[in-house]
Amino acid sequence: MTLWTQVDSNKRKTWILMTTFLIVFVLLGWLFSYIFNSKWILIIAVIIATIQAFLSYWYSDKIILKTMKAKEVSKKDAPKLFRIVENLSITAGLPMPKVYIIEERQPNAFATGRDPHHSAIVVTRGLLDLLEDEELEGVIAHEMAHIGNRDILLQTVLVILVGAIALLSDFFLRMSFWGFRREENSRGNILLFLIAILAAVLAPLVAVIIQLAISRKREFLADATGALLTRFPEGLARALEKISKVKVSLKGVNISNAHLFIENPLKGSKKYSFFERLFMTHPPVEERIKALRGMNI
User: Fold this and answer.
1) What CA–CA distances, in Å, run from 279 to 85, 102, 216?
2) pTM for the predicted model, two decimal places
3) Which residue, 87, 92, 206, is CA-closest to 150?
């Protein structure tokens, strides 16, 4: 598979998952509104979820940088790192992002910011100490790809959808529990109502699974896009190998921000069951390395 076909394939799979997500949301909203004969359930859920996502979009970068105790550095502080970021930002045609370092031993990195003009690339001290120049370049190219591919915007859209589905389900279950569904005003029969109850219970879980699946596809896409920038997929492949072998903890990381990093900072087993894979924030590193080494320039 060539680099270009890999990129196209991952984009296509992402859009298929996004379309599935939207279909689930629309069907759920229609079902609940139909049973209660009211559009307000859907409207209120969308409004609340949008407000939450808006706040996340504007302030999440500041929160994560503070949580991880990341310190902004200048070209004088980290000349090699700055040179790599500058060169790749020029190659990608993107504004120069701010550069941060976290004084932690675990080798890792992530990108944040609401758009390319307000972006930042963050690396740990362990990453700088561990990787050679070509490997570090591969990691930075991966993070530049996230910025260029608007993955932060996509994550915001996902937050809106997941939040809206969760709120829809919660509203429906609460209204059902408290007996707000009046039989004379309900157009749904008993079977449809039972289906709606089941959907309300399962929909948030399905939404999270689809969100994580999209996140994993965007990691593959960032790998392929980053390889296009450097024209050297082996650099990132070697970097991922080295990063995955270091088993040390990283302070400030939890399940809500682990998806940001180039490799899952919550280290676990290399062998995953089918159900474990559904809830992974990152693809297995072995699959990413295999995909990178299978690309042809």
Assistant:
1) 32, 27, 10
2) 0.81
3) 92
Give the list of residues 6+ apart from residue 17 with CB closer than 8 angstroms, or none.
Answer: 210, 213, 214, 217
* Domain boundaries, given as residue ranges, for the chain: 3-293
pLDDT, position 70: 96
User: Mean pLDDT across the stretch 275-290?
Assistant: 82
46 sits in which H/E element: helix 40-67
Question: Average pLDDT in the 52-72 region?
Answer: 85
Half-sphere exposure (Cβ direction) of 2: Cα atoms closer than 13 Å? 4
Length of the chain measured in residues: 297
| 3-class secondary structure, 256 | coil
- pLDDT over 90, % of the chain: 41
Cα distance between residue 30 and residue 34, in whole Å: 6
pLDDT of residue 231: 93
User: Do residues 163 and 53 make contact, with C-beta atoms less than 8 angstroms apart?
Assistant: yes
Burial class (CB in 10 A: 0-12, 13-18, 19+), 80: exposed
Q: Which residue has the tokens 């370049």?
A: 137
pLDDT at 182: 47
Cβ partners under 8 Å of residue 199, min gap 6? 28, 31, 169
Catalytic residue IDs = 143
pLDDT higher than threshold 70 for residue 5: no
